Known about the structure:
This protein is of the alpha/beta class and 206 residues long. The protein has one domain (2-205): Rossmann fold, CATH 3.40.50.10420. It has 5 helices and 11 strands; from the N terminus they run H-H-H-H-E-E-E-E-E-E-E-E-E-H-E-E. It has helices at 2-25, 28-40, 44-59, 62-66, 164-169, and strands at residues 69-71, 96-103, 106-112, 119-120, 126-127, 135-136, 143-146, 150-151, 157-158, 177-182, 202-205. The chain has a 7-stranded mixed β-sheet with strand order 6-3-2-1-7-10-11. A two-stranded antiparallel sheet has the order 4-5. It has a two-stranded antiparallel sheet with strand order 8-9. Strand 2 (96-103) and strand 3 (106-112) form a beta hairpin.
Amino acid sequence: MVKMSLRCNLFCNSQVDQVYRVAMSLNKAPLRQAILLILKALPPAERRERSLALCRSVALSAQWKAAGTVGLFSALLTEPDLAPLWEPWAGGGEKRFCYPRMEGEVIRFYAVARPSALLASRWNLLEPPPGEEALIPPSEIDLLFVPGVAFTRDGHRMGWGKGYYDRYLAGPQLRATTIGVCFREQIVPQLPLEPHDLPVARVLEA
């Protein structure tokens, strides 16, 4: 285990240097590829431990404690897992959780009573089942956690290139505090930005 972790650390360190060089070139496609290569090399146990540490940090934050309705997302293997926020120690029982569902060119958030209610989609994502009675308007979300492939420390974000979250963040009804969550390997000094790329209010790294 120690040898495997050491090899991963050596590999990741050299790859992080490459990510920084690619980031400075302001080219999105190779930057996504370089970061995903690093994230796929992280051992599953390390992903879990770092995700749990991030969730513990979230549970202590003022934004979390003040929020009634929270927008989460079901993590890919390359993203921090926010599922521990459902646990009693995090105060999850006091929150109304909602998750995104891709519908055409947009995402809409639906209330979810428990994680097991999420269903596998054609994109290998876990999404809430459709149902207008569970639809949460953007104006009702107090705290929104936003995934991404890369972030800068001042909140700029690069996603997967489809623009789902960019369009949602640009909605006039959204008043939520937005928090980008990522692994520290996803933090870069700068990103190639386009007019539709909107920053998040804060970035938390695992």
